[in-house]
Amino acid sequence: MGPRGVRDPVAQGEAAGTEAVARARALRAGVSRPIHVSGYDRKVGDFYATPGWVTEALLRHVQFRGRVWEPCCGGGAITTVMQRRGYDVTSTDIANHGFGTLG
Fold this sequence. Notes:
33% of the residues lie in helices and 10% in strands. It is an alpha/beta fold. It folds into two domains: 1-33, no CATH class; 44-102, no CATH class. The protein has a three-stranded parallel beta sheet, with helices on one face. Strand 1 (68-70), helix 4 (77-84) and strand 2 (89-93) form a beta-alpha-beta unit.
């Protein structure tokens, strides 16, 4: 086993594809890798509003108790849907998108 309990084909001398070898070397060097790779361009300030239907779909399967904190409220997309459904929501964000409490 290599660092972090990951099987390391380089250290074990196994025949592996070049991608696996590169991953193993990066892990040994402590280089991080992206968790999610997307074909979409990254938006300035990483502002990605959640469509209302996504929150509605979540609320069909999950019921929250008490006050809900929306820590990255953006323009209030999630908060608005949750408030319509009767939830008490505290909305905050580190960037000012015109909704919630800044901070």
